[in-house]
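Annotators were shown the component list below and the corresponding predicted structure, then asked to write short factual statements about the assembly.
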Amino acid sequence: MTEQFEVVGIRQIPSEKQEKKNRWHEGKPVLSGGLLMLIVAGCLFCNLIMTKDPSYLDFQHYNIAPDREFLFGTDMMGRDIFSMVWYGGRISLFIGIVSTVISTMIAVVFGAVSGSAPAWADTLLMRLTEILLSIPGLLMVIFVQAILGKASVLSISFVIGITSWMSIAKIIRTEVRQIRNSEYVIASKCMGGSFFYILWRHLTPNFVSSIMFMVVMNVRSAIVAESTLSFMGIGLPVEIISWGSMMSLAENALLTNSWWLILIPGTFLIVTLLCITNLGNYLRKNVNRRERNI
Amino acid sequence: MRRFLTFLISIFLLSAVVFYMSRLAPGDPLVSYYGDRVEKMSPAEREWAEEKLGLDDPLSIQYIRWLENVFHGDFGISYKYKMDVLEVIRGRIGNTLILGGVGFLLIFVFSLLLGIFCAWHEDRMIDRVICKAGTIISCIPEFWLSLVLILVFSVNLQWLPSGGAYTIGREGDAGDRIWHLILPMIIVVINHLWYYAYMIRNKLLEEVRADYVLLARSKGLKKRNIMFRHCLQNIIPSYLSIMAISVPHILGGTYIIETVFSYPGLGTLSYESARYQDYNLLMVLCIMSGILVIVCNMIAQTINERIDPRVKMNELVCTMDITSEITGVAGMPDAADTAEVTRV
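Structure shown to annotators:
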């Protein structure tokens, strides 16, 4: 021990008075929120933005690079990418939200049943979820979809929804197990509250904050799943425009080196996903960060 | 012994479910056997063809017959390739194992290094930059990343081939194979890297805040020593068990990439077999991935029991919780084709 003396484990003591009042947007994902709003609004009101009819096949102008008339270029079938991006975003976002609603509903019911069931049933149900959870998600969707055959917007949302509820269900189950013996739940039960009444009025408000992050992330993975499916040609057909199905023409685009067909819808997709992720991270409970010891 | 029994039962259930699911689903297996000729067949010819392939019996009889054959080591023929199923798979499995296996090793090593690096530089510029970049990259769907890389490196720069496992006519050339592997491999690694590196980082940060670290520091141990000898040692076992669980994830993750690069591996094969109702092939592939998932879970469990003897048979839960917690989006990255385990 010939080294010099060093004091370890000192940390700053937080000062009593705050130096400056935080501004409202401090620590909030303003940029992501704003961008997401912009994209969602653009997709919702796409009729006002679109310069062309997105499904009109203009065989005179096919596969042209972005220029003044066609802001983002056109695809192999002469459709205007700029209009398609906004129009297709509608369907992509719709699928993301609908499938998340489906999976959350399954998760809430499943988790609550498992959480309030007797021990043996709980073990059984949880074992089932674990098996499902250990099977990775996206290809599961692909295989169910491949077996089901032809896809529509609703069937895709359904397939994605029923394959992505497991992790939320596990969290809900844990939370429900913790609160199911609280006085107010028992009281409500004694007064004849039905299962769904208790679930809705007493259990849900308690676990909603802990699943919020997962729910938001589910929107994200649903959008990814849809675009992957459509890209592989087993999701939405080319006629139904979504961000995924726009890229199902990518194989041809590679041959002709038309970068705009791949980059533009992809960029929209990724920016949306990124914004959703940031929002989700913001929703995640901020863990108290302690000073490190090393 | 008990484990082996559960193993057998789950495989049996899996096979039954896959069998019924795939056959009840719409789609005509004759198409994959006869191709377009099916449409021109007369009803009599159809009947004859169905009888020949054994598709005209009730499902349960078909299933029992399938089981019988399997016990004699006969998995049936693939309708599409008209070869024994095992032969078809044997031709492809090597490719997938190379892509998935080497990818797995690379991910394993790099995520460990990256995680330690970030934890070491916590909250400094470099750590923040890496974290941001990691979040962005983890948002990019793998198929799009592959498309962009193909667009840049093979279409525009023409440095690397855009697909396949070898140049036609040079099957045996190892260098050529490696050449074709570069792009898919990069994507496999990039896609999963951050997921695990971030996990390592967070676990290390948690560890660094433990009281024993303060003790070690006050005894005068060097930072590097504490980090590598003590903190790292504490998280390695759980890292190992998580990596064991993620083997099927990573192998499965190669499936989509294989399809984009039309790389002849199990991924393209199972995709085709599900798409074209190639029942026998689908069965074997599903059962193989089922076995993989179960075996990996068992390995993880064994590791966990070794670390902490309190964890017993029925507590696989904890590792699962860790994975879903840390990765944030459980089951998010891609996958194995055991879709049908859903119904088990």
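Statements collected:
1. The CA atoms of residues 223 and 229 of chain B lie 10 Å apart.
2. Residues 313-344 of chain B have pLDDT under 50 and may be disordered.
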